[in-house]
């Protein structure tokens, strides 16, 4: 298997999933993977605008010169892909989105590695990363599962749908952050020149979103207004994704 076909592995750093610099360099097919650190250092100020760039000081096994190892979040990783200008940069960007989405949804991403392409130290580090992710995931499932079961019952019993503003309140987040997430993850979209949100048809078929349409008169001219609403099922799914509970917000609503 070629290096460029190896799957990306997420490493938890201070509770946040990140991609190790050399792993990204290998996936981008850098001739010398360590060169990615020079690229990161040249763009460190811009990377820090997304979030603080996680850095770990390392010392070679042979006692050589210490060096910094970087761990990038999703936006930082995509930015470095763009700056790398490698032939497969776009492919790797798409993979980064898929891997982080899989992490957000609580699913595992398969890791396909060829030991012949890694040093003994890299293999040990990758094994440790995989074990750390397994432990973190088991703890997360133990905490989330009772809430997820309760949310399933709420989604089935509750009637009515919420506009994005009320849904954001129930999810304990800003409306702009919720809408941005819905756009990025293809729950909704906007037509060119129109600020209204439109639900993707598959999300309507899944019962996650619905549309409310009404017609108004403006100076004698009929105008059609479309409004996206998040169903109880959709709200419960978002609560699972964002790992929040809606019990306090939904209790007492009509069934």
Protein architecture, described:
The structure is a single chain. With 255 residues, the protein is of the alpha+beta class. It folds into 2 domains: 3-118, Mlu1-box Binding Protein, DNA-binding Domain (Roll), CATH 3.10.260; 145-250, no CATH class. The protein has helices at 21-27, 35-42, 44-50, 74-84, 89-104, 120-157, 164-170, 175-184, 201-205, 232-242, 247-250, and strands at residues 10-13, 16-20, 54-58, 67-72, 188-189, 198-199, 209-218, 221-230. A 4-stranded antiparallel beta sheet has the order 1-2-4-3. Strands 5-6 form a two-stranded antiparallel sheet. Strands 7-8 form a two-stranded antiparallel sheet. The radius of gyration is 22 Å and the shape is elongated. The termini are far apart. 21% of the residues are buried.
Which key terms come to mind for this protein?
single chain, 255 residues, alpha+beta, 2 domains, four-stranded antiparallel beta sheet, two-stranded antiparallel sheet, 11 helices, 49% helix, elongated
């Amino acid at each position: 298997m070629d290096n460029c076909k190896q799957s990306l592995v997420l490493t938890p750093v201070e509770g946040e999933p990140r991609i190790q610099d050399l792993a990204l360099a290998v996936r981008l097919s850098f001739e010398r993977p360590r060169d990615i650190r020079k690229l990161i250092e040249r763009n460190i100020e811009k990377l820090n605008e997304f979030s603080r760039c996680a850095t770990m000081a390392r010392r070679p096994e042979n006692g050589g010169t210490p060096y910094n190892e970087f761990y990038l979040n999703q936006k930082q990783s995509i930015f470095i892909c763009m700056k790398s200008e490698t032939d497969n940069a776009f492919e790797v960007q798409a993979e980064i989105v898929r891997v982080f989405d899989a992490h957000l949804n609580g699913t595992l991403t398969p890791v396909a590695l060829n030991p012949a392409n890694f040093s003994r130290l890299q293999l040990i580090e990758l094994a440790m990363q995989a074990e750390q992710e397994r432990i973190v995931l088991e703890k997360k499932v133990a905490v989330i599962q009772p809430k997820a079961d309760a949310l399933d019952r709420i989604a089935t019993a509750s009637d009515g749908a919420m506009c994005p503003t009320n849904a954001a309140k129930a999810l304990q987040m800003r409306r702009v952050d919720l809408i941005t997430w819905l756009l990025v993850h293809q729950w909704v979209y906007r037509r060119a020149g129109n600020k209204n949100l439109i639900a993707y048809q598959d999300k309507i078929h899944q019962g996650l979103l619905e549309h409310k349409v009404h017609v108004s008169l403006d100076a004698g001219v009929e105008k059609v207004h479309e409004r996206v609403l998040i169903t109880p099922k959709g709200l419960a799914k978002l609560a699972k994704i964002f790992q929040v509970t809606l019990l306090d917000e939904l209790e007492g609503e009509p069934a």
